[in-house]
Amino acid sequence: MSNSFLFTSESVSEGHPDKVCDRISDEVVDLFLAADPGARVACETLTTTNRIVIAGEVRGPESVVASDGSVNKDKIEELARAAVKDIGYEQDGFHHENASVEIHLHGQSKDIAVGVDAAGNKDEGAGDQGLMFGHARRETDVLMPAPIQYSHEILKSLADYRHANADSGLGPDSKSQVTMAYEDGKPVGVTSVVVSTQHDAELDQDKVREIVRPHVEKVLPDGWFPSEDEFYVNPTGIFVIGGPDGDAGLTGRKIIVDTYGGAAPHGGGAFSGKDPTKVDRSAAYAARYVAKNIVAAGLADKCTIQVAYAIGVSKPLSLLVDTHGTGTVGDDKLVGAVNEAMDLSPRGIREHLSLSRAIYAPSAAYGHFGRHPTEEGHFSWERTDLVEALQSALT
């Protein structure tokens, strides 16, 4: 790629149909992990007009799974409705009280369990094969690519405004898109912004545009607001019918929104609905953690990590560090430093990042990366506490 180019990333809000599904699936994960940190969950959700379907495989505590293997469906239904209410859906076509909820969860395959479980001298293995990527770059204060980070922040600002103002006129479903100009590989400005947001029928396009404007202005750096003819708000002119009533949703369909907005590779696995024995989730978090700490340590301005696993095997099959020519030491030396500083086995990742906790529902919208760690343990993979260990490993 040339050093001067335009790059675009998009985000979708918590009320997007696919994100509603991600939220419900992660609420199920949190329910099981809160009862037993060793629970296993692979939960998928489908939403459409006033219908929620939850399916998948679980292995968990007696407080959630009965002795006959059945799931406590009342708890699952209650949390699904609560999630939909929290997002803000009280519409004729999708309402937290009126939607039907079907639950089709069953026991985890013994063939998978035998590969993952520790036994004798065998450590816990990966829950599936796959390759995972992590990325960080010195473009924002959270070391994320700027286009995806600004796209997330615009929608989060709109959502906060909607939740705080019952008469905002906005609905839960929205999307954003930011196009940035790069020169010499660095962002220098925004060339266009697109925001589509669900709204009340009484609001016309011009009114919605002026509601959206201050949220874009707040997020973008000074002087980076695009020209008026490149500021697109509800380009079709109307967006009243939205959410699962307007478009069916599924868990795991927004993997590029969840990660780096297309600015870095993706292994293909979704995150939401999976407990941390699934390396699709935990190893992608670990890869981001390592990449972010390499950049935070001043060892590179840009870093991509790839790690690969085989089902049932604890040791990673490969580890790649690529600093894209920005590293202060060779990438091969960084591979050695990473291996010394952190155990990238599935067990090692879960223990290092404290992932076997009920921490996942907040990650279901506005990106899994570029967030701020909390005292409760959310977004532990965004910490920069590996800096010293990496630097020591290189001395």
How would you describe this structure to a colleague?
By secondary structure, the protein is an alpha+beta fold. It has eleven helices and 13 strands. It has a four-stranded mixed sheet. The protein has a four-stranded mixed sheet with strand order 6-3-2-11. It has a three-stranded antiparallel sheet with strand order 7-12-13. The protein is flat, with a radius of gyration of 22 Å.
Task: Break the fold down into its secondary structure elements and pairings.
Blueprint: E1 5-12, H1 17-35, E2 40-48, E3 51-59, H2 73-87, E4 90-91, E5 94-95, E6 100-107, H3 110-116, E7 130-137, H4 146-164, E8 170-183, E9 186-199, H5 205-219, E10 231-233, H6 243-246, E11 249-250, H7 255-258, H8 279-296, E12 302-309, E13 318-322, H9 331-341, H10 346-353, H11 387-393
Parallel strand pairs: 3-6, 9-10
Antiparallel strand pairs: 1-8, 2-3, 2-11, 4-5, 7-12, 8-9, 12-13
Keywords:
flat; 13 strands; four-stranded mixed β-sheet; single chain; alpha+beta
What characterizes the major β-sheet?
4 strands, mixed
CA-atom Rg in angstroms: 22 Å
Number of helices: 11
Strand order of the largest sheet: 1-8-9-10
Alpha-beta classification: alpha+beta
Q: For the terminal residues, how far apart are their CA atoms?
A: 34 Å
Morphology: flat
Proportion of β residues?
A: 15-25%
